[in-house]
Amino acid sequence: MFVKTFTIGCISGAALVLAGNPDKPEMNPAFDYGRFEAGLRDNLHPTHSSWDYWGPGWIPQSCKDIATSHGLNPNDFTIFNVHYDDCQEGWTFCRHKDSGASEIDMIDIFGRAPVHMRSFIRHLVATPGLHDGAAAFTYSSGDCVVESAPDLSVMLHEISHSLDWHALPQYPSPFSSSGEWQSNYAQDSNTPTGYGRTNWLEDFAETGKVGVFDKVVPGGFGSIAGNWNQIFHQYATYQGYLGDTILPGGTCDKRFPNSETVPKNDNSKRADLGEKPDNTIKSENITLIRVRPEIEGQVAFCNH
Fold first, then answer.
1. Edge-to-edge strand ranges of the sheet holding 123-126
2. How many domains does the chain have?
3. Cα dist from 83 to 67, 144, 260, whole Å
4. What residues form DSSP beta bridges with 126?
5. Entry pTM
6. Is-contact 125 143, C-beta < 8 A?
7. Which residues pair with 59 in a beta bridge?
8. Where are the residues of the annotated region Disordered (predicted)?
9. Is 70 a member of any domain?
10. What domain range is 206 assigned to?
């Protein structure tokens, strides 16, 4: 057990918001990524699920927009609903035929994330490689795109972007732009990874996967990183503000409204399409997440 006696949030936030991007060096020595990924997979288990397919003529509007904006044909996407046992509402996934992530890859890795984290993703989309070096990217709309079979750490990173934008509505969005986040960063000597130095969004997301690891893996982050204290204020702040959201267990109580169901082909005749899938969130026990106007259209890339 590691006794951590640091103070979180003791510096006045507004006065110490830092200019520019995170500039502290990455952890030295860096933590072992292989052990990190294995620890997550050993302790975040798949969630039992079932799935069913849409008819060939329909697609969620946001999946269609992602396809057309990247020169992909919407007709090359398979659309399917995944029903996890811990949520009364399914998720609609969109997979391109040439994606490096299979349907099973998508269902398995997404289902390993704690359900309250998962709830901050609207649609999971799998495509061929679209951006040189990018593994995944997430929109402020809640849509997450993977370009290959993602590691669990990458999935937690991507979901953390959506948490940054949406999970703490009482604070500025993204939360990583706030004095609460940046004043705690100022108390650490390092950034979790070199990639976390890209900008505040990436620092938060890289910290996020560490924060989850520390909670779910026996021995915490210190079990693989003796220098855990170099970034402790960051991952403890992530844990402290998000609380049970990042812990396994429970059932979903928040979801994005799904994007509108539209024809894959703009010139399709309704009579040729078959029955239109009803993709609305119906449960009265689920609070709908709304995108704040000031963050509409934002996107964050993961280049791991």
1. 49-53, 77-84, 91-96, 123-126, 144-146, 136-139, 299-302
2. 1
3. 24, 18, 19
4. 95, 146
5. 0.92
6. yes
7. 262
8. 256-279
9. yes
10. 33-264+276-303
Residue 282 lies in a domain: yes
Spatial CB neighbours of 284, under 8 Å, sequence gap ≥ 6: none
Look at residue 20 and tell me if it is in a domain. no
- Lookup: tokens for 198: 């890209």
The dihedral built from the CA positions of residue 249, 253, 254 and 259, taken in this order, carries a sign that is positive
Residue 277: CB atoms within 10 A of its CB come to: 19
Burial of 67 (0-12, 13-18, 19+ CB in 10 A): buried
Q: In which residue are the tokens 């349907």 written?
A: 103
Structure confidence by residue, pLDDT tens digits, 33-73: 999 999 999 999 999 999 999 988 999 999 999 999 999 99
CB within 8 Å of 110: residues ≥ 6 apart = 82, 91, 118, 121, 124, 155
